[in-house]
Amino acid sequence: MEIIPAIDIIEGHCVRLSKGDYDTKKVYNEDPLEVAKMFVDWGIGRLHVVDLDGAKSGHIVNHKVLERICGKTSLVVDFGGGLKSRQDLEIAFDCGAAMVTGGSIAVKDPEEFERWIETYGAERVILGADAKDGRIAVGGWLETSQQELLPFVESYYKKGLRKVICTDISRDGMLGGPATELYKKMMSEIGDLYLIASGGVGSAKDLDELEEAGVPAVIMGKAIYEKRITEKEIRDRCR
After folding, report:
1. Which residues contact 66 (CB under 8 A, 6 or more apart)?
2. What is the rounded CA–CA span in Å between residue 72 and residue 1?
3. ∠143-54-117 over CA atoms, to 5°?
4. Which residues, including other chains, have CB under 8 Å from residue 136's CB and lie 6 or more apart?
5. Fewer CB within 10 Å: C terminus or N terminus of the chain?
6. What is the pTM of this model?
């Protein structure tokens, strides 16, 4: 199972939220690059970077942070948060992102999102499927759409997209365990998804649970920053 640490950015700083609530912001490091370099030292190869300012404002904001991370580390970075236009994507790719994640755009402007897939290829575009009470949330999780999770993901699967980050918002940042049963259901009903689980991981036991369920990859943040999962446990899994 691929281990993907998350760096969420507000005003250039590395932060974490609980359940996507901006009022719960906790700053873990003033410089995200320092955090990224730490992950490289641990043997990590992938990184998930979220521009929370961008998610709120509807356009890319913290691209300079992305550029520093990509320019000064060997990490393969996927970048999301507020990407709405072809110009946003060009900025992200020019700054070094290997992949971009689209969530709100996939709900609100599916034709544009499909053009991203056609233009850049399914390997460089990840579907962000963030769920709240079984429905897709958008706009930095500040708004819940009428789209149901499974049909939403399946519709893009049929269009050739295979990489999906699925976050159960009720678990995000809470360290209470991942939505393993939901991920099992998604994989059994949709097929050969490269499903990236996100939200709720609070221990190495949670990672074991996801791996046993056959989940291909996992994103985690607070569990690392709060030292619920140790450097050794990460290193052992990345060997």
Report:
1. 49, 51, 77, 79, 92, 95, 96, 97
2. 26
3. 85
4. 103, 107, 129, 130, 144, 145, 147, 148, 149, 152
5. C
6. 0.92
Which residues, in sequence order, are CB contacts of 138 under 8 Å at separation 6+?
Answer: 103, 104, 107, 108, 130, 144, 145
Q: Which structure tokens are listed for 143? A: 């708004």
Q: What are the DSSP calls for 193-236, one per residue?
A: -EEEEES---SHHHHHHHHHTT--EEEESHHHHTTSS-HHHHHH
Residue type, 43: G
Amino acid sitting at position 141: W
| Model confidence pLDDT, tens digit, residues 1-58 | 999 999 999 999 999 888 777 888 889 988 999 999 999 999 999 999 999 999 889 8
Q: At 108, list the tokens.
A: 């609100």
By annotation, the residues acting in catalysis are: 8, 130
203 vs 176: CA distance, rounded Å:
9
- 122, amino acid identity: A
Cα separation, 212 vs 67, in Å, equals 36
Helix (H, G, I), strand (E, B), or coil: what is residue 85?
A: coil
Residue whose entry in the numeric block shows the structure tokens 């906790």: 26
